[in-house]
Design goal:
The complex is a heterodimer. Chain A is of the alpha/beta class. Chain A has helices at residues 2-16, 19-49, 81-90, 120-141, 146-152, 174-208, 211-215, 221-259, 263-277, 279-301, 304-332, 336-361, 368-375, 380-388, 394-422, 432-440; strands at 53-59, 72-77, 95-99, 111-114, 160-163, 169-172. In chain A, strand 5 and strand 6 form a beta hairpin. Chain B is of the alpha/beta class. In chain B, helix 2 crosses helix 3 (105-118) and helix 2 packs parallel to helix 4 (134-146). Chain B is elongated. Classes of the chains: A alpha/beta, B alpha/beta. The interface between A and B is medium-sized, with 22 and 27 residues.
Amino acid sequence: MNKIWLIIQREFLNRVLKKSFLITTILVPLIFPALIGGLAYVAIKDAESAEADVVHVLDESKQFTFEDSKRFKFVPIDQSLEEAKKIYNATNDFALLYIPNLDINKPEGVLLFTKENPSIDKVGDLESKIETRIHDLKLKEYNIDEATLKSLKPQVNLKQFNLTDTGEAKSSNSGMLYGLGFGLGILIYMFVLIYGIQIMNGVIDEKTSKVVEVVISSVKPFQLMLGKILGIASVGLLQFTIWIILISVLSSGTLAYFGLKMPQKQMMEQMTSQMNSDPQMKEAMDQQNSKVGQLLGNLSEIPFGKIAFVFVFYFLGGYLLYGALFAAVGSAVDSQQEAQQFQFPVTIPLLIGYLGLFMFILRDPHGSASFWLSVIPFTSPVAMVGRISFGVPSWELALSMVLLIGGFLLTTWVAGRIYRVGILMTGTKVSYKVLAKWFMMKS
Amino acid sequence: MDALIVRNVSKRYTNHTALDSVNITIPEKSIYGLLGPNGAGKTTLIRIINQIINSDSGDITIFGETLQPKHVEIIGYLPEERGLYKKMKVGDQLLYLAQLKGLSRSDALTRIKVWLDKFEIRDWWHKKVEDLSKGMAQKVQFISTVLHEPRLIILDEPFSGFDPVNAQLITEQILALKEKGCTIIFSTHRMETVESLCDHIALINKSKKILEGPKKQVKDQFKSNTFIIEHRGNHFLLSADRYELVKQERIEDDLFSTTIKAKEGIKGNEVIREIIDITEVHGFQEKVPSMADIFISLVKGEGDDALKKHLLEV
């Protein structure tokens, strides 16, 4: 036990004290906020410095008037189209908009002339301005006022509840659960894959540098394998913890800093001030507020403590289960290239769990495919954490956990038997038959 | 007390037998040469003693006790395929390997310093192994083998990769360890090492032990009553009933070297007495076989009568 501890220490310190660990651990969480922050900064600067585009409007129908906005400045032209084109060409302005004498029920023949290809964004913006105007005109034509129209367009948000056995209704929110399941499932998938491969490479390193013979003259091969797996697990946990802390601190920091200057936020503020003066708008706003309140309520309904516990359990269970297999693969081969043929079959069940997450779990968390995926130990680490936030019956969770423990004990045992023979075998052409032979070999 | 007694140890793999009922006895405080051609089973035997692999049958006694996992702490092992953690610093590496052998951290630190001083490589502490030359890495590996002051040291081809100066340095250290009471097992096929250092030997061939004993005794067994006489004048006659001429060479002018083989029972003194009257004797020497001779003739199975007879006895 003491010796396993020494091995864990070495594996841990050797990785954590490396410069590359420090760099990846600090850089990865910096990259995302830096990207978000950088882009937001550029976007804001761009928007601030951009001058409004001048659009010449030749309106033959005489029904369209446009208000100038931050983006566009409209200059009415009152000439023939040919003349207007000439005038436009003489300027550096953005576009010439030609509206023929059109039938508002069949708005066709509107033309936009520009000097260079305009962005889809700007075109869309202009289109919507015209559409809005036509919309208003039609309302007038049919004698409909805004209020009637509003009452014609009811807004329904399903308020979701889960009915528990005791008949107590718990509100729920599928969108949020989807996001949570999705995020946690991917985290586990990534962790198992990244650190599993680190175990494999560590074993290959020891084998090719021949140091393994010295080490196993002091400790049992199984101790060495276990020490390596646990040592790398602690590196992974440390790295993930640092990432989570850094990402949340930095992201909220960047958002807090840039968020105030965000265009949407500004818009929201403007809207709010308008709404307060308009009783109808105020009503809508209240509705909005109650929705936010409901969302926050749902957030507090989600059993985060339970999810965190399940996450950590499957995080470690899945890692141990696959880690042992990766160690066995590393022990069987002489190089990383050679490892690929065995690495692939090991990652397939993990991949099935990952695909199952999108195909079944998140779409139908209580279907039978979801049940099996989250119970079978090879797929359950990814599948169960994806499913857990939707609510899983206790017996299913218990079954899945017991099977996962059994699963990693089994893979560790199998891997240990291959490992003890494999690490001393160099230069052998390894096939599955050979692996089976090693496994059967009596100690 | 014997340091190590191996009794009827066998190890079979699916396609071949690595060890076939091997018995060896290694006396305490000896330097014991484990000889044999490549693939004879030496490494398998060494790995079994180190408990890296288990034997199929047989038992091993170390300093009077049955071999158990705790005994890894009194064995030091230098494998033929040397290896250290390339990215680890020399000091950390030695510390780690010593602690795995059960040494406390503080003891390990003091001893590492002593050994680094002994080899005058104190400033290597912070060097990574990948930055060392092969010979330098070998020194570090040797230190790691003896750091925990094992009572039994197993060295597999210890001099490969060392230049003569460093080989001499290592030899001195090995002899010093023997003086301190360590028992040392050499696995090698370098016969000059065996001639100069070993006091006991065993020869393993094709998974069987075919010869074992104190070096002097083994050599005596292989004496074939052959004598080399240096003399002036190329002709002297000896009774063909009693002697057989093996070869005659001219050394210079009329100085010759003649090798004769006497019939069994004829002692060296008798030979001298006989030839002193018939030729001018300049030198007389009994031909003792070198370890290399014994090794080659036994392994090739082409030994003379004495060797064959010996094989039958074993």
